[in-house]
Amino acid sequence: GKSGYDHYMLKEIHEQPRALRQCLRGRVDELSASVDIGDLGDLSPTGIQFVACGTSYHAAFYAAQLFQSAGIPAQAFLASEYATSPPPIGDALVVGVTQSGETADTLSALREARHRGARTLAVTNVVGSTAARECDHALYIRAGPEIGVAASKTFSSQLGALNLLALATTRSDEARDIIAALRDLPGQVQELIDDSDAKEVAEHYQDAKSYFFIGRGHMHPVALEGALKMKEITYKHAEGFAAGELKHGTLALVTEDTPVFATTVGDGEQATKTVGNVKEVEARDAPVVAVTDGQSDIERYADHVLTIPETHPRAAAVLANVQLQLAAYHTANFLGRSIDKPRNLAKSVTVE
Ligand code: F6R
């Protein structure tokens, strides 16, 4: 059952600390700063291609960034486009990111890759799913069953598991810091949920017709995911962008009626540039909701702040996304939407 929550989605948002602990359990050794995901650790890919749909595509996009930063050529593809314009595979590992393991578009991209001689790996929540059975390897995200149609805890656990994959198969000078950040993540997610102001933000902007989400680097996939969640469960227009891209056209739509959720962490160059983009939307009188660890001066230009604890930027992506999940959830709840079963959507999409 829903264990006292109004919706499965809210229950599943609250289950994230536990789901993340489960994902990491027995796989991370802090003393030696090493990760053990069994045979998968021996894969040492020279190139990696991710295929996925929807929320899982956003996780795949984030994962491609992790491998790129380790010097491994990596790309994320929308599974439904993969076979239509097939990229050169070479000896790349092809990774299907799929919560259900049953998404037709993703299965068919993985079959295409196998047909062309690639080794394949399924990153999935469901043991014995078609993706897990058909791929050469499987990495389980261990989030537990997700009932709400909109993916929430499984996205966070995908990011956790994909970090483990990157740590186990590549070298990183930051491994120790990343592992420490992953260890702290479940507790930080709990802290964030307990203190979140997302409900007030949702109440304030529930009548907006359109929402925008911006972020750079790891916060770009988070912006895309924030917008998708908002669309799915509120039935309102929402779009996510790389922070620098909004001004290349969509700024024309930004008015005092379009709240902009802007995510920054740290006080480095990326944060400074995003703050610059925030000034542009603020100058058009758009309400700004800053999702931030408080290190940059974004709060000066923001009407509301959703705080995330300080951590490594990789873990910050998970935290920022939880704030956006809560903002979407509460907005949909104020609007009286069918949150666990949004119109027109199914939990697993078995047609192409
Ligand atoms: C969004 C959502 C969908 C799925 C997509 C892929 O909340 O749930 O976008 O992420 O249909 O599903 P899986 O991960 O099962 O392949």
From TrEMBL:
The active site is at residue 347. It is an enzyme of class 2 (transferase). It comes from the Archaea. Keywords: Aminotransferase, Cytoplasm, Glutamine amidotransferase, Repeat, Transferase. One of its GO terms (biological process) is carbohydrate metabolic process. Its EC number is 2.6.1.16. Residues 37-175, 201-342 form the SIS domain. One of its GO terms (cellular component) is cytoplasm. This is Glutamine--fructose-6-phosphate aminotransferase [isomerizing]. GO terms for molecular function: carbohydrate derivative binding; glutamine-fructose-6-phosphate transaminase (isomerizing) activity. Homodimer. It comes from Halomicrobium zhouii.
